[in-house]
Design goal:
By secondary structure, the protein is α+β, with helices and mostly antiparallel strands. 37% of the residues lie in helices and 38% in strands. It starts with a strand and ends in a 5-residue tail after the last strand.
Length: 95
Amino acid sequence: TVHTILTLKKDNIPIEYRLFRTDAKKEWRIYDVITDEVSLVDTYKGQFRKLLADKGFDGLLTTLKSKRAQLEKENAGKSAKGATATPAKAEGSAN
């Protein structure tokens, strides 16, 4: 687990990254991001479960591809100017 503080103008936003270490290369990978005590994994899990129930697996993939294309189009050439993320501390091992 890595705790960071995202500083954007006058706001400090705590963000927690959950990590695991790969077997092959022993590299660290992020598998979850938590902000405002809300897990990105848990949020997506609920959304995916509903899409799977309503539209099936093919419908889930179609929805994800469509959303990705929409976001890429909306964010073309944009960046998070003025934002910085500074590691605050790392705790124990991530598993």
